[in-house]
Amino acid sequence: MQDVGVLGAGIRPMQPVPGRLPVGAEWSYEVDWSGIRLLADVEDGTLCLRTLEGDDVTARFPEFAPLADVVPDGLFDGEAVLLDAGQPSSLALFDRLRRADPRKARTLARARPAILMVYDVLRLYGVPLTARPLDERRATLGRLNLDEVGRIQVSPVYDDGPALLAGVREQGLPGVMARRRDTPHDPDAEGDWLRVVAPAEAPTAPTAATAVDLPTAEQPPAGPALSALPPKPPHPLSASSVAPSGKVPRGRHSRGGEEPPGLW
Protein backbone atom coordinates (compact mmCIF):
# COMPACT_ATOMS: atom_id res chain seq x y z
CA MET A 1 0.00 0.00 0.00
CA GLN A 2 1.29 3.45 -0.90
CA ASP A 3 0.77 6.33 1.48
CA VAL A 4 -1.23 9.01 -0.31
CA GLY A 5 0.99 11.54 1.43
CA VAL A 6 3.69 10.83 -1.14
CA LEU A 7 1.34 10.76 -4.11
CA GLY A 8 2.01 13.45 -6.69
CA ALA A 9 5.34 14.79 -5.40
CA GLY A 10 4.31 14.92 -1.76
CA ILE A 11 0.80 16.33 -2.29
CA ARG A 12 -1.54 15.25 0.50
CA PRO A 13 -5.33 15.41 0.13
CA MET A 14 -7.39 17.83 2.17
CA GLN A 15 -10.16 16.45 4.36
CA PRO A 16 -13.50 18.19 4.99
CA VAL A 17 -14.55 18.59 8.61
CA PRO A 18 -18.12 18.59 9.93
CA GLY A 19 -19.61 22.01 10.51
CA ARG A 20 -22.53 24.37 10.23
CA LEU A 21 -23.34 25.96 6.89
CA PRO A 22 -21.28 29.16 6.46
CA VAL A 23 -22.80 32.01 4.47
CA GLY A 24 -20.96 34.68 2.53
CA ALA A 25 -19.42 35.57 -0.81
CA GLU A 26 -16.11 34.03 0.29
CA TRP A 27 -17.67 30.55 0.22
CA SER A 28 -18.54 28.22 -2.66
CA TYR A 29 -20.86 25.24 -2.33
CA GLU A 30 -21.08 21.78 -3.88
CA VAL A 31 -23.21 18.70 -3.43
CA ASP A 32 -21.90 16.02 -1.08
CA TRP A 33 -22.11 13.11 -3.53
CA SER A 34 -21.68 10.39 -0.88
CA GLY A 35 -19.13 8.65 -3.08
CA ILE A 36 -15.71 7.14 -2.56
CA ARG A 37 -12.95 9.72 -2.51
CA LEU A 38 -10.35 9.10 -5.20
CA LEU A 39 -7.14 10.79 -6.28
CA ALA A 40 -6.75 10.40 -10.04
CA ASP A 41 -3.07 10.71 -10.93
CA VAL A 42 -2.25 10.80 -14.65
CA GLU A 43 1.44 10.64 -15.47
CA ASP A 44 2.96 9.95 -18.89
CA GLY A 45 -0.51 9.18 -20.17
CA THR A 46 -1.18 6.47 -17.56
CA LEU A 47 -3.98 6.77 -14.99
CA CYS A 48 -3.63 5.60 -11.40
CA LEU A 49 -6.62 5.78 -9.04
CA ARG A 50 -5.98 5.67 -5.30
CA THR A 51 -8.23 5.88 -2.27
CA LEU A 52 -7.37 8.07 0.70
CA GLU A 53 -5.91 4.96 2.33
CA GLY A 54 -3.50 4.61 -0.58
CA ASP A 55 -5.08 1.54 -2.19
CA ASP A 56 -4.65 1.30 -5.96
CA VAL A 57 -8.17 0.77 -7.36
CA THR A 58 -7.43 1.64 -10.99
CA ALA A 59 -8.50 -1.77 -12.30
CA ARG A 60 -11.84 -1.54 -10.49
CA PHE A 61 -12.94 1.53 -12.46
CA PRO A 62 -11.96 0.95 -16.11
CA GLU A 63 -14.62 3.44 -17.24
CA PHE A 64 -12.39 6.28 -15.96
CA ALA A 65 -9.44 5.34 -18.20
CA PRO A 66 -10.31 7.93 -20.95
CA LEU A 67 -9.23 10.70 -18.55
CA ALA A 68 -5.62 9.95 -19.50
CA ASP A 69 -6.43 10.40 -23.19
CA VAL A 70 -7.44 14.03 -22.60
CA VAL A 71 -4.98 15.08 -19.88
CA PRO A 72 -1.66 13.18 -20.12
CA ASP A 73 -0.33 14.71 -16.89
CA GLY A 74 -2.49 15.86 -14.00
CA LEU A 75 -3.56 15.12 -10.44
CA PHE A 76 -7.29 15.34 -9.78
CA ASP A 77 -9.33 15.10 -6.58
CA GLY A 78 -12.86 13.76 -6.71
CA GLU A 79 -15.33 11.01 -5.90
CA ALA A 80 -16.53 7.87 -7.63
CA VAL A 81 -20.33 7.83 -7.63
CA LEU A 82 -22.67 4.92 -8.38
CA LEU A 83 -26.42 5.25 -8.58
CA ASP A 84 -29.11 3.02 -7.13
CA ALA A 85 -32.69 3.93 -8.05
CA GLY A 86 -31.44 7.33 -9.17
CA GLN A 87 -29.61 8.12 -5.93
CA PRO A 88 -25.89 7.87 -5.09
CA SER A 89 -25.24 4.55 -3.33
CA SER A 90 -22.25 3.87 -1.07
CA LEU A 91 -23.20 0.19 -0.85
CA ALA A 92 -22.99 -0.22 -4.62
CA LEU A 93 -19.55 1.40 -4.60
CA PHE A 94 -18.20 -0.84 -1.87
CA ASP A 95 -19.46 -3.83 -3.82
CA ARG A 96 -17.47 -2.59 -6.82
CA LEU A 97 -14.33 -2.17 -4.70
CA ARG A 98 -14.50 -5.83 -3.68
CA ARG A 99 -14.18 -6.96 -7.31
CA ALA A 100 -10.44 -7.31 -7.80
CA ASP A 101 -10.67 -9.31 -11.05
CA PRO A 102 -10.13 -6.83 -13.95
CA ARG A 103 -12.39 -8.86 -16.25
CA LYS A 104 -15.22 -8.76 -13.71
CA ALA A 105 -14.63 -5.04 -13.20
CA ARG A 106 -14.96 -4.43 -16.94
CA THR A 107 -18.22 -6.39 -17.00
CA LEU A 108 -19.59 -4.38 -14.08
CA ALA A 109 -18.45 -1.11 -15.65
CA ARG A 110 -20.38 -1.92 -18.82
CA ALA A 111 -23.50 -2.99 -16.92
CA ARG A 112 -23.45 -0.29 -14.24
CA PRO A 113 -20.86 2.40 -14.91
CA ALA A 114 -19.72 4.75 -12.20
CA ILE A 115 -19.16 8.48 -12.55
CA LEU A 116 -16.03 10.31 -11.41
CA MET A 117 -17.14 13.65 -9.99
CA VAL A 118 -14.01 15.83 -10.06
CA TYR A 119 -13.82 18.91 -7.84
CA ASP A 120 -10.16 19.92 -7.78
CA VAL A 121 -6.97 19.81 -9.84
CA LEU A 122 -3.71 19.78 -7.86
CA ARG A 123 -1.16 19.40 -10.65
CA LEU A 124 -1.33 19.99 -14.40
CA TYR A 125 1.41 19.27 -16.97
CA GLY A 126 4.00 19.05 -14.22
CA VAL A 127 2.99 22.36 -12.61
CA PRO A 128 1.85 22.09 -8.95
CA LEU A 129 -1.32 24.10 -8.36
CA THR A 130 -1.63 23.63 -4.60
CA ALA A 131 -0.47 27.18 -3.82
CA ARG A 132 -3.18 28.68 -6.05
CA PRO A 133 -6.51 29.70 -4.47
CA LEU A 134 -9.45 27.37 -4.94
CA ASP A 135 -11.18 29.68 -7.44
CA GLU A 136 -8.12 29.60 -9.72
CA ARG A 137 -7.87 25.82 -9.50
CA ARG A 138 -11.56 25.50 -10.31
CA ALA A 139 -11.12 27.85 -13.27
CA THR A 140 -8.32 25.65 -14.56
CA LEU A 141 -10.47 22.57 -14.06
CA GLY A 142 -13.30 24.15 -16.00
CA ARG A 143 -11.06 24.90 -18.97
CA LEU A 144 -10.23 21.22 -19.46
CA ASN A 145 -13.77 20.31 -20.58
CA LEU A 146 -13.67 17.05 -18.65
CA ASP A 147 -17.45 16.75 -18.95
CA GLU A 148 -16.83 15.61 -22.51
CA VAL A 149 -14.87 12.57 -21.31
CA GLY A 150 -17.36 9.72 -20.97
CA ARG A 151 -17.87 8.99 -17.28
CA ILE A 152 -15.93 12.03 -16.01
CA GLN A 153 -17.82 15.06 -14.76
CA VAL A 154 -16.84 18.27 -12.97
CA SER A 155 -18.85 18.73 -9.79
CA PRO A 156 -20.86 21.97 -10.18
CA VAL A 157 -20.24 24.98 -7.95
CA TYR A 158 -23.16 26.90 -6.45
CA ASP A 159 -23.23 30.37 -4.92
CA ASP A 160 -26.32 30.07 -2.67
CA GLY A 161 -25.51 27.71 0.18
CA PRO A 162 -28.86 27.79 2.03
CA ALA A 163 -30.79 27.17 -1.21
CA LEU A 164 -28.53 24.26 -2.14
CA LEU A 165 -28.84 22.75 1.34
CA ALA A 166 -32.62 22.99 1.12
CA GLY A 167 -32.51 21.40 -2.31
CA VAL A 168 -30.38 18.42 -1.33
CA ARG A 169 -32.60 17.84 1.70
CA GLU A 170 -35.68 17.70 -0.54
CA GLN A 171 -33.95 15.30 -2.93
CA GLY A 172 -32.67 12.96 -0.25
CA LEU A 173 -28.98 13.75 -0.74
CA PRO A 174 -26.66 13.66 2.28
CA GLY A 175 -25.59 17.28 2.38
CA VAL A 176 -23.38 20.08 1.09
CA MET A 177 -19.67 20.82 0.92
CA ALA A 178 -18.63 24.42 1.64
CA ARG A 179 -15.15 25.62 0.64
CA ARG A 180 -13.40 28.98 0.97
CA ARG A 181 -12.77 30.44 -2.48
CA ASP A 182 -9.47 32.21 -1.77
CA THR A 183 -7.56 29.46 0.03
CA PRO A 184 -4.73 27.25 -1.29
CA HIS A 185 -4.72 23.48 -1.03
CA ASP A 186 -3.51 23.07 2.55
CA PRO A 187 -4.14 19.68 4.23
CA ASP A 188 -3.28 21.18 7.63
CA ALA A 189 -5.77 24.05 7.40
CA GLU A 190 -8.86 23.85 9.58
CA GLY A 191 -12.22 25.25 8.61
CA ASP A 192 -11.52 25.88 4.91
CA TRP A 193 -13.57 22.87 3.80
CA LEU A 194 -16.75 21.95 5.68
CA ARG A 195 -19.15 19.03 5.29
CA VAL A 196 -22.67 20.13 6.18
CA VAL A 197 -25.26 17.42 6.77
CA ALA A 198 -28.69 18.09 5.31
CA PRO A 199 -31.25 18.63 8.10
CA ALA A 200 -33.90 15.98 8.62
CA GLU A 201 -36.64 18.63 8.65
CA ALA A 202 -37.26 21.70 6.54
CA PRO A 203 -36.05 25.02 8.02
CA THR A 204 -38.60 27.13 9.87
CA ALA A 205 -37.96 30.12 7.62
CA PRO A 206 -38.98 29.49 3.98
CA THR A 207 -35.96 28.98 1.71
CA ALA A 208 -36.02 28.77 -2.07
CA ALA A 209 -34.62 25.33 -2.86
CA THR A 210 -32.02 24.69 -5.53
CA ALA A 211 -32.82 21.57 -7.55
CA VAL A 212 -29.85 19.35 -8.38
CA ASP A 213 -30.02 17.47 -11.68
CA LEU A 214 -28.51 14.11 -10.82
CA PRO A 215 -26.49 12.16 -13.37
CA THR A 216 -28.25 9.08 -14.71
CA ALA A 217 -26.97 5.52 -14.62
CA GLU A 218 -26.92 5.40 -18.42
CA GLN A 219 -24.97 8.58 -19.06
CA PRO A 220 -24.09 11.66 -17.04
CA PRO A 221 -25.37 14.96 -18.39
CA ALA A 222 -22.82 17.28 -19.94
CA GLY A 223 -22.82 19.41 -16.79
CA PRO A 224 -25.60 19.23 -14.18
CA ALA A 225 -27.96 22.17 -14.46
CA LEU A 226 -28.77 24.47 -11.58
CA SER A 227 -32.40 25.48 -11.22
CA ALA A 228 -33.87 27.44 -8.34
CA LEU A 229 -37.53 27.77 -7.41
CA PRO A 230 -38.10 30.60 -8.19
CA PRO A 231 -36.46 31.81 -10.44
CA LYS A 232 -34.34 29.47 -12.57
CA PRO A 233 -30.75 30.79 -12.73
CA PRO A 234 -28.37 29.96 -15.57
CA HIS A 235 -26.27 26.82 -15.88
CA PRO A 236 -23.59 26.94 -13.13
CA LEU A 237 -20.79 26.78 -15.67
CA SER A 238 -22.27 29.15 -18.24
CA ALA A 239 -20.56 32.44 -19.06
CA SER A 240 -23.39 34.51 -17.60
CA SER A 241 -23.29 32.73 -14.26
CA VAL A 242 -19.52 32.89 -13.77
CA ALA A 243 -18.75 36.34 -15.13
CA PRO A 244 -19.38 38.24 -11.84
CA SER A 245 -17.05 36.03 -9.78
CA GLY A 246 -14.68 34.87 -12.50
CA LYS A 247 -15.22 31.18 -11.71
CA VAL A 248 -14.84 28.32 -14.11
CA PRO A 249 -14.41 29.90 -17.53
CA ARG A 250 -15.03 27.51 -20.42
CA GLY A 251 -12.85 26.55 -23.35
CA ARG A 252 -10.37 23.74 -23.96
CA HIS A 253 -6.96 24.16 -22.37
CA SER A 254 -4.06 24.16 -24.79
CA ARG A 255 -0.44 23.71 -23.92
CA GLY A 256 0.69 25.53 -27.02
CA GLY A 257 -1.55 28.60 -27.15
CA GLU A 258 -1.56 31.62 -24.88
CA GLU A 259 -3.65 31.34 -21.74
CA PRO A 260 -4.82 34.02 -19.33
CA PRO A 261 -2.25 34.36 -16.54
CA GLY A 262 -2.77 32.47 -13.30
CA LEU A 263 -4.92 29.66 -14.69
CA TRP A 264 -2.34 26.90 -14.31
Automatic annotation (TrEMBL):
Any GO MF annotation of the entry: ATP binding
Top EC class, one word: ligase
EC number: 6.5.1.1
Keyword Lyase attributed: no
GO annotation terms (biological process): DNA recombination; DNA repair
Keyword terms of this UniProt record: Ligase
Domain ATP-dependent DNA ligase family profile: 25-195
A Pfam family recorded for this sequence: DNA_ligase_A_M
Renumbered residue ranges of the record's region Disordered: 212-264
Name of the protein described by the UniProt record: Bifunctional non-homologous end joining protein LigD
Originating species: Actinomycetospora corticicola
